[in-house]
Design brief:
Elements (H helix, E strand, L loop, with lengths): L11 E5 H18 L2 E2 L9 H10 L4 E3 L2 H9 L4 E4 L6 H13 L2 E6 L2 H11 L6 E6 L12 H13 L3 E7 L7 H17 L7 E4 L15 E3 L8 H5 L10 E12 L2 E4 L3 H4 L10 E3 L5 E6 L4 E5 L9 E6 L2 H5 L4 E5 L5 E5 L8
Parallel strand pairs: 1-16, 2-9, 3-4, 4-5, 5-6, 6-7, 7-8, 8-9
Antiparallel strand pairs: 1-10, 10-11, 10-15, 11-14, 12-15, 13-14, 16-17
Bound molecules: pyridoxal-5'-phosphate.
Pyridoxal-5'-phosphate binds next to loops.
């Protein structure tokens, strides 16, 4: 524990606990008012601590992208997990089956028959069925069946598969895609009804549209990840303000090699080269006239009014895409309301299988 930010070695990830908890609270209140179940995606914070805070605030469970993330969360006592991924291959199915025995409720998504057949083979002798949601592509162009008819076809296969239960429809829309989600899901829900298949949940998500997404009584569950920390991409989209950004990279100015240029000790191994289509690699807090223009592995280049900086100065950066930055750190400094910092683990850091 330290109270001095200058005692923290850089580059470091700093998380303001009060801001993160307030972001959790605000969005939970929003979902409560909208009648939506909230199932946060833990790929942003990757910590058991914040999963517990999300559940304590009222989330129905969590979303993970990988079995390894889910394993860590289950070990941390999280009992309701949705893995939004096509699980494929013997090794992963074996782990999924073991995971199911350690949690109260486990669901996965699937968008094709071979994946469903694999899940069924792994779970046909299980004590309780595995919940499987059909993933739908409502316009994002990633995974997902392409039509309502496709969703019904897979739902029928799930219903008939030993060891599985159909647990609903899931999609991850592109920013601005909420209207398409409602249209797609309304069609799919109607067709499921006609086929006599009950649809327990319709799950959508995404932080970019978190405040504006139309759900129209069709979407029942919202999955959201980035909202807990926010980042400069969400500031750029108007989804949050700078003061809502809970996680920042602390870096030190190590060189002022030329007029208008400063070098910091945070390069691509910290910030990642994921710009999310934005110019530059993050916002330099308190320096709107300085841009973060270049990355090499260990060096970050700041350009603009760098005459205000001197060697040894600390700068805070709000990354473009916080989720991938968190995954670069084994640990982060959690700042409490008294301003004290304590070191915490990024529990699921680097867990990609
Ligand atoms: C399947 C799925 N659900 C939910 C989310 C959460 O999105 P966001 O971080 O925009 O809230 C993601 C993000 O990648 C995702 O892939």
């Amino acid at each position: 524990m330290t109270t001095l930010i200058d005692d923290i070695e850089t580059p470091a990830l700093i998380v303001n606990e009060q801001v993160a908890l307030s972001n959790i609270r605000k969005y939970q209140d929003h979902c409560n008012a909208a009648g939506l179940a909230l199932r946060p995606h833990i790929k942003t914070h990757k910590t058991v601590r914040f999963s517990r805070e999300q559940i304590a605030a009222g989330a129905v469970g969590i979303t993970c992208q990988k079995i390894s993330e889910a394993e860590i969360m289950a070990q941390g006592g999280i009992s309701d997990i949705l893995i939004t991924f096509n699980i494929w291959g013997e090794a992963k199915l074996f782990r999924l089956r073991a995971l199911a025995e350690n949690v109260e409720k486990l669901q996965v998504t699937a968008d094709n028959e071979p994946v469903i057949r694999g899940l069924s083979a792994a779970f046909s002798s299980a004590a309780k069925p595995l919940g499987v949601m059909v993933e739908c592509d409502a316009g994002a162009g990633r995974c997902g069946v392409q039509s309502a008819e496709g969703a019904v076809e897979l739902a029928k296969i799930i219903v008939e598969s030993p060891g599985l239960s159909f647990s609903g429809l899931m999609t991850y829309p592109a920013p601005g895609g909420a209207k398409n989600v409602v249209e797609f899901m309304r069609r799919a829900k109607d067709q499921l009804e006609q086929a006599g298949i009950a649809c327990p949940a319709i799950s959508s998500g995404g932080s970019p549209d978190m405040w504006s997404a139309e759900t129209s009584g069709i979407v029942t569950e919202y999955r959201i990840g980035t909202y807990i920390f926010n980042d400069s991409s969400l500031v750029a989209r108007g989804a949050c303000g700078l003061s809502d950004c809970a996680a920042k990279v602390l870096a030190t100015v190590v060189s002022l090699p030329a007029n208008g240029r400063a070098i910091i000790d945070a390069g691509s191994k910290v910030m990642t080269s994921d710009t999310l289509g934005l110019e530059g690699f993050g916002l330099v807090v308190g320096h709107p006239d300085i841009k973060f223009t270049q990355l090499s592995e260990e060096h970050g280049t700041l350009e603009g009014a760098t005459d205000k900086l001197k060697i040894g100065d600390r700068v805070s950066i709000i990354p473009n895409h916080i989720c991938v930055v968190v995954n670069m750190f084994d640990t982060f400094w959690l700042q409490n309301s008294a301003g004290e910092f304590s070191l915490a683990n990024v529990d699921a850091r680097g867990l990609i299988t």
